[in-house]
Amino acid sequence: MDIIQLSKRQMEILDIVKENQPITSEHIADKINLTRATLRPDLTVLTMMGILEARPKVGYYYSGKSLMSVMGSFVKNVNVMDVKSVPVVVSEDTTVYDAIVTMFLEDTGNIYVQNHGYLSGVVSRKDFIKTTLGNHDIKNLPVAMIMTRMPNIVYCEADESIYDAATKIIAHQVDSLPIVEKIEEVGAVLKLKI
Fold first, then answer.
1. Are 140 and 151 contained in the same domain?
2. Sign of the CA dihedral 22, 24, 27, 33?
3. Model pLDDT for residues 6-60, shown as the tens digit of each residue
4. What CA–CA distance (Å, rounded) separates 51 from 43?
5. Residue 102 — very low, low, confident or very high, per pLDDT cuts 50/70/90?
6. Listed residues 51, 77, 103: the one ending a domain
7. For a tag site, which of 48, 60, 107, 129 has the least CB within 10 Å?
8. Per the omega criterion (within 30 degrees of 0), is the bond before 142 cis?
9. 159: domain range?
């Protein structure tokens, strides 16, 4: 996800409103030398984000909220189920070789391991590197032998916010989190999605 940034014109509008609040859109347009119609989308965005507030027949005024506080409250209200991706899953008896091939084909950093439909482990790139450097027979070694097992797996539940998931990802320095529902995997939250 890209970081949301205000445009140069939106920043200029904010500065004008802060200095002259309350101010009508007509006066803002005069100060920038543009028409009200040209400013309308910018004013709408700033108002919908909660950075500016508008009162009929009074004008626009600064709400006191920064872009970061607006984004922070947004992130705390978005559920992980709204941004989850499809996880790459293999069974415990899959060979390390096949799991490595799957990792490259799916272009992922982690593979989730399941046993009878339930999350039983996670294998990362680092686990695969350690195993292949150790001269193991990766075509016969099951992935269950090298995976990180429960309860050492950091996960989030389906009702958590993406803020909670991001906090766990940063605190535990992992690439992704499995989303579990009663210990059953239903998706994955990736660093790139948050």
1. yes
2. positive
3. 889 998 999 999 999 899 999 999 999 999 899 999 998 888 888 899 888 889 9
4. 10
5. very high
6. 77
7. 107
8. no
9. 80-193
- Contacts of residue 12, Cβ cutoff 8 Å, sequence gap at least 6: 32
Contact 7, 46 (CB under 8 A): no
CA distance 53 to 118: 49
Q: For 125, how many CA atoms within 13 A lie in the half-sphere containing its CB?
A: 9
How big, in percent rounded to 5, are the helix, strand and coil portions of the chain? 45, 25, 30
Nearest to 23 by CA among 65, 54, 44: 54
Cα separation, 184 vs 155, in Å, equals 11
Other C-beta atoms closer than 10 Å to the C-beta of 181 total 12
Note whether residue 3 is domain-resident: no
Structure tokens at 44: 């709408």
Kindly state whether residues 86 and 71 are assigned to the same domain: no
Run of H or E residues at 13: helix 8-20
Q: How many CB atoms lie within 10 A of CB 31?
A: 15
Calculate the CA 40 to chain-centre distance: 30
Tens-digit pLDDT profile for residues 149-174: 977 889 888 889 888 888 898 899 88
